[in-house]
Amino acid sequence: MDALEKQIALALLALPLFGSGPIDFQTEELPRAILGVPYDATIRTSLNGRCPSGNVALFVASGSLPRGLHTTEEGLAGVPRELGVFRFWMGARNTCASTIHVFEMLVTGRPILRTTPEKIEFTVTPDAPPESQTVLVSSSWPGLPYRLGTPEDAWINLRQAQGATPEQGSALAGDRVTVTVVPKKLPPGIHHGTIIVSAWRADAIPIEVTITVTAPAPPPYELPHPN
Prior knowledge:
Distance between the termini: 110 Å
Strand content: 35-45%
CATH superfamily of the largest domain: Immunoglobulins
Mean pLDDT: 87
Radius of gyration: 29 Å
Helix content: under 10%
Largest sheet: 4 strands, mixed
Shape: rod-shaped
CATH class of the largest domain: Mainly Beta
CATH topology of the largest domain: Immunoglobulin-like
């Protein structure tokens, strides 16, 4: 047991323990926080029902919260003012029992979305079947859920593979999005559309889609029949 673990054990032993009403932390992990953005996380606890008092108070038993955050009746709140990974022990107690749980919190910058490629082009004939290309969506945050939108572009169909950027350590460069265009919904000419990629706390980015629908081939020329 190192010095910090001894400090935690002593702090726990010093907490008031009356009767047998153990408290459990139901929350195992905290959501990541963004520097300078208001943060509010609920830390849930539970009792075994044998304690006459159900009120549970949360406190920091050891370690330190990111600067700008504080404990509340429900968990943690505030505006983080420093970047990094913070490890601390949260305590929970009432008149019957007390317990602690170690948490890690990541304070990072806003997520940044990326797409590869940023533009896609199609050249089709008016009677061609739907055609597809693939776009990869990635982010500075692993496992980030994202959304797709195509305002007023009914000729573009979209299909996401997972709907979230790859998790940390994944061999994938990005989540696969299949972009399908339907030429039969368009007259001959050049048409432009936009796919909007968005995610929580990230700036939305566009993917430009261009489809060139060629003019239909003229009917074959037939020589006039002699009289």
